[in-house]
Design a protein that fits this description.
The chain has about 70 residues and is mostly helical. The chain has a domain of about 45 residues. Helix content is about 40%, strand content about 10%. It has three helices and two strands, in the order ααββα. The protein has a two-stranded antiparallel ribbon with strand order 1-2. A hairpin with a 2-residue loop joins β1 and β2. It is globular.
Length: about 70
Amino acid sequence: MLTENEKWSSIDEIAEHMQVHKDTVRLWIKKNEIPAHKIGKQWRFKISEIDEWVRSGKSADINKDDD
């Protein structure tokens, strides 16, 4: 659930939140697979959107095309 006061998170913070390497997050951004927002030259995220993405099962489909 997105809240108005929810802060924007960086790649480093999202990688830590998801317990993956930040290069993995960058790859997901490049493949347009993770909910990310470009603000200026930096990518930013809402934790609520990331958590919903994981709950929806979309994160489980990431590497299916690579099999």
